[in-house]
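Thread: quick sanity check before group meeting

JM: Hey all, I'm pulling together slides for Thursday and realized we never actually wrote out the predicted structure for the chain we discussed last week. Dropping the sequence here so it's in one place. If anyone has concerns about the input, flag it before I start.
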Amino acid sequence: MTNAAQTVLSGDTNKSEFRFTNNWFDTTAKNSWDQLIPHAKPRKILEVGSFEGASACYLILKLATEADIEIHCVDTWEGGIEHKEEGQDMDSVEARFKHNTQLAMDSVPHKVNLVAHKAYSDKCLPQLLADNKQGYFDFVYIDGSHQAPDVLCDAILGFKLLRVGGFMAFDDYLWAENMPYGKDPLRCPKPAIDAFINTYFRKLTLISAPLYQIYVQKTSD
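JM (edit): ok, ran it. Output follows.
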């Protein structure tokens, strides 16, 4: 792991096609984001968990056609437990993230300040708070580790970084690993998301959406 140093990505701009090996974002998020993002119009975005950059590219292409944006992507590009068990080549995943986001940035008229934090979120998010970014972001997307304790940590820290009136989205609400002994309640995001929403219910509003993703709007600190 590297330190949570901020690195502006660069890549090969001569290649003209996006390189995604899955359609997770299109099937679980895009339809809802098509409604939410034009309404929210975020200009400062924090994404925990970036993988190949599908959600980051969506935000760049959707928002930077109208205004400059700043997007922080937090990922180790080491993969989670499930990726390691599958033998996923995470170096290739990171390379595709760089290629895809650079291609998206090259396709829009406005400036995109894309900052990649190659670090664990429980190290990076406190550093952002220490850098005076409490209440800084308009939109926070939690899509990193699928382990419940990690998701809860990301949610609590991400909420502090979110401004009042901003939106937070959670991916994989109903995702669970198929373990040999059945579903492990701590190896899925749902218990953590439920615990966060139930604990912070006086500081947020739950937004109606398909159950695979959950959306909330922050109403107070």
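AS: nice. The first strand starts at residue 6 and ends at 8. The CA atoms of residues 16 and 185 lie 42 Å apart.
JM: adding both to the slides.
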